[in-house]
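debug: dumping io for the single-chain case to check the tokenizer round-trip. Nothing else runs in this session.
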Amino acid sequence: MAGPRAHRPAPDRRLSAVEYRGGSVRAHGCGEPPRYGLSCLIEKLRGELARLKRAGFGTASERLGGRVEQLELAIETLEVDEAERLAAMPAVAGAVEAARIRPARRPLPGHLRRESIVHPGPCACPACGGALRRIGEDVTESLDYVPGRFKVVRHVREAFACRACEQVVQTPAPHHAIARGRAGPGLLAHIAVAKFDDHLPLYRQAEIYARDGVDLATSTLSGWLGATAAAVMPLVDLPRREVIAGSDVLHGDDTPVPVLAPGTGKTRTGRLWTYVRDERPHGGARPPAAVIFASPDRRGERPLAHLARFSGVLVADGYAGFNGLYAGTRPGGALTEAACWAHVRRKFFDAHAATGSTLAAEALARIGALYGIERGLHGKPPDARTRERQARARPLGAALKAWAEASLSQVPGRSDLAKALRYMLARWAALTRAFDDGRIALDNNAAERALRGVAVGRKNYLFAGSERGAERAAAFYTLIESAKLNGLDSEAYLRDVLTRIADHPAKRLADLLPGTGRRPRPSLTLPDRKARRRALTRSPPPCAAKAYAPRPCSTAPPTAHASGPTSPTRLCPRSSPVTPSSSTTCRPTRWQVCVRPSRPPGRGCSTSRPTARTSIPSSRSSPS
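debug: decoded output
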């Protein structure tokens, strides 16, 4: 008789170290007692997951996509099981925590709002009953999360009538990002970024909003997203023209995206093409940008049409569809081809991982020496990069070519190593072109990074609903990836664009592009990761940027009104050099809400519950 287990899905035997029993994951073969076997298995699966993720993007990674997802789910299940087991056995949990080697705990970010919960002490000494005096306090901080909040913005337009002629005067209605829409720019930006940068389909967003009590149908979100795409399309067309025609070096790549075929219920494979300009490695003046196009197929005429106005160097992989760009019959002249060393290295890495070949290991070491030279050239001008490459990298490249030609006769002709050697030698002229031009990068990683979000998004929304949907996705990816290349928060940037684009002059539309026109406001800029790590290890001086002193909260501008139970709330304007004040301080960045702290608890005996006070500290020091 079939028991309850007959209805459970059979485990995938590719996970040799994992066995499903009774709906849980159990470990085997770790060499540890069963009580501690999960930790060993988790580390083993993490190592296997890292090895699979090194496959990068492309055909190989698409074959391994299901394997990677399965490993991630298995690791998540094992970690939850271990945490649940340790929570049930405090003594074992203490022993495991003591045995683990953990890095030093970093302090919590200082810019976050602090909420202090004061736990009152006893009234008298519990030992002798004597009076107590306060000698200090201990502060323990924990990180908590408050879900995002919706708000309703009321645009109040007062109407006046002339006493003499009875003419009615009223301020014109403000322009909205989308016509006849009840969504503000912040919500529209959040919907677009959540779909194309956080990879949340619209039906999942509708479920998330419903938990906050806001019922938004998927059809409503679809309509808003389409109207938003129409509003930003003139802005998207600008970089597509300017980046293609005004760049000297471009990185090109493409990735598949399933597109729903109308009337058939099936999907066909479309493509998203990206062309990236990134002059930061050689200190160029042009801001980085990424433009993305959609096409229903991968025919060679697509890149010919995309790059019709481009003349310069194209860094790309060995896709045959790009060959028409390098032909002399191309209108406007042939482009200069520069190949990708990362693709060459990836083929040798796969050969070494499969066979452990010493020849493949030597090829990896020789290519690694080239990248070691390149790391020291980051940020230098093109002339200096060219001189260093010709003096140091070119001799290594010549030696690598001679070694490859000699090694090709020593390996079987159909082996993966022979294919990797032939791939490198066939593109040798394009691979070594970077040695003569300091503007050219060694690899095409800039284009692959721009398409990484597309590769992740395919796992969630599975396919584009139509060819028009693929073009809409390409438009949003263009703005989002360009904003990220310039160090901007993609959602904050898109919110700023939707706030201003309706009233912005058409002749100055380029000012809204990331990295061009006016400098972005500080509220749009993402913090530098290295600087943030340095800031977490020490307490920065308060307001050290421009010697701004904290200023007290003031009343809001005449046009801002607030309603609700938060009566002590004020809006804090942009900071300016003022004298210090003992009032509540606010971060001097932009308009934001500041909440005054409540009075400190009295010194007398109190049997009430802990009191909470909310404040925004001006530095990272703990409250005293």
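debug: round-trip ok. The longest strand covers residues 249-260.
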